[in-house]
Design a protein that fits this description.
Layout lengths: L3 E3 L21 E5 L1 H11 L7 E5 L9 H13 L1 H12 L3 H7 L5 H9 L4 H9 L3 E7 L7 H8 L4 E5 L7
Parallel strand pairs: 1-2, 2-3, 3-4, 4-5
Helix pairs in contact: 1-6, 2-3, 2-5
Length: 169
């Protein structure tokens, strides 16, 4: 079966991590973290029929100030290898899984990730298109504020809070 999947920042081919949640069919698209932003944009710019989109730990930084975002970019530019390694550890990846899924991120991608503004109108447009939105969040996430994410996304879809889980669920 073919299905559409968008990877997270610094990652590739990590979709298998979410196999127990992913609906693998042609009418469902899924994404993790940074990939959630790309998926939303893709849905808004596509005429392809979808019934469901699944957002695994969407990278929600609407609640972070500009100083936080600038500091992340500075740390990345100083030592991108160390930044990516620490970032993925904070996501909950083991050293082996980092080695398996790692793809060096780019500063433009990190900037896009941090400065992306989750827009209520965009999500409402997707809902109005008849597309179901499922949002999966871990209650121990070290990357995003789970409470803020729940409060934002619950208006547009079904939010599943996974107890004891971090960013990679």
């Amino acid at each position: 079966m073919k299905y559409l999947y968008f990877s997270g920042f610094c990652l590739e081919n990590e979709s298998e991590i979410f196999d127990k949640y992913i609906i693998q069919n042609e009418l469902t698209a899924s994404a993790f973290s940074y990939g959630c932003q790309q998926l939303v944009q893709s849905v808004l710019n596509s005429t392809k029929r979808l019934d469901t989109i699944q957002l695994f730990s969407p990278s929600f930084f609407n609640d972070k100030d500009d100083k936080y975002k600038r500091m992340q970019l500075i740390y990345f530019q100083k030592d991108s290898n160390n930044y990516c390694s620490e970032f993925l550890k904070n996501c909950g990846f083991s050293k082996d899984s980092i080695n398996k899924y790692f793809k060096m991120g780019k500063v433009d991608e990190l900037k896009d990730l941090l400065y992306y503004h989750w827009d209520e109108e965009k999500l409402q447009t997707i809902v109005d298109m008849g597309i179901k939105i499922e949002i999966y969040l871990g209650d121990k996430d070290k990357i995003v504020n789970t409470s803020q994410s729940i409060n934002f996304f619950k208006q547009y879809g079904e939010v599943y809070l996974i107890k004891g889980a971090g960013h990679i669920l």
